[in-house]
Specification:
Blueprint: E1 4-8, H1 13-27, E2 32-38, H2 48-62, E3 65-71, H3 80-93, E4 97-101, H4 108-123, E5 145-149, E6 162-165, H5 170-177, H6 188-192, H7 194-200, E7 206-210
Parallel strand pairs: 1-2, 1-4, 2-3, 4-5
Antiparallel strand pairs: 5-7, 6-7
Helix pairs in contact: 1-5, 3-4
The structure holds zinc ion (ZN).
């Protein structure tokens, strides 16, 4: 069973959008599966073989497993066949979390994969089907959790559910992206917008995550420093000191 299944339309999409976060999660011992809906063919640069070799090199760098679906670059559609193909990958790896694109941006393949991943997550749980593998997840849960990443040149929705600080991982993320040598014509930073997302949370580089519905938290701990690292409680300003209650007047 995988912790994270990250789905993208083309080799390099996932790495551009959330490569820093995936490196961080691998460092913390989480297992990751990369799933590219296409092998990039027909490709403006490189060949099917070079792009596959690059995707494998990136997966190795990340320490992730790699799955490549049979869809074609530029012609990706949220079809019944594609849903079943991706659902089989979900049933095989049984991830706790699925990452897929937020349905924004200029590339129709990215938007198609956003809808395809939503549907495949639903199809993966079906019983009474000819598809291989056990339904995932088994009842009573209805589906693995799903978060979305941003992959578009323009920021259409600047309100992510949260931003992960990848300042520490930024240099390694550039090494990861360098695995895609044939894609030097792609302005990866323009798509990733690490500095923009980082600025939203007051750090140098970040990666944004979106979610349908509010973000559930167990309590307020994520907003508190560990007890030993907290600054001493500030004394209230003089004017706000509590005054003794007025003495009761006998009437
Ligand atoms: Zn793409």
């Amino acid at each position: 069973m995988a912790d994270i299944l990250a789905v993208g339309a083309h080799p390099d999409d996932v790495e551009i959008a959330v490569g820093g976060t995936l490196l961080k999660m691998r460092d913390r011992g989480c297992s990751v599966v990369l799933c590219h809906a296409s092998d990039g063919e027909p490709t403006p640069r490189g060949s099917r073989e070079t792009r596959l070799a690059e995707a494998q090199a990136a997966a190795r760098f990340l320490g992730a497993e790699l799955e490549v679906l049979s869809l074609r670059n530029r012609y990706i559609m949220d079809s019944l066949e594609a849903r079943r193909e991706l659902a089989l990958v979900i049933r095989k790896h049984r991830p706790a979390l699925v990452l897929s694109p937020w349905p924004v941006g200029e590339h129709p393949d990215h938007r198609a994969v956003a809808h395809l991943a939503d549907a495949a997550r639903f199809y993966a749980k079906l019983s009474k089907t000819d598809d291989r593998g056990e339904p995932w997840p088994l009842p009573p849960w209805w589906a693995p959790d799903q978060l979305y990443y941003h992959l578009a040149t323009a920021v259409e929705d600047p309100r992510p559910a949260f931003v992960v600080d990848i300042t520490q991982e930024y240099t390694r993320k550039q090494e990861l992206l360098a695995c895609y040598r044939s894609q030097t014509n792609v302005d990866m930073e323009r798509l990733a917008k690490s500095a923009f997302w980082g600025e939203l949370i007051g750090v140098r580089y970040g990666e944004a995550f979106f979610r349908r519905g509010s973000l559930p938290l167990p309590d307020l701990s994520p907003f508190l420093s560990p007890p030993g690292e907290r600054p001493p409680a500030a004394r209230p300003p003089q004017g706000l000191r509590r005054r003794p209650p007025p003495s009761r007047q006998r009437g």
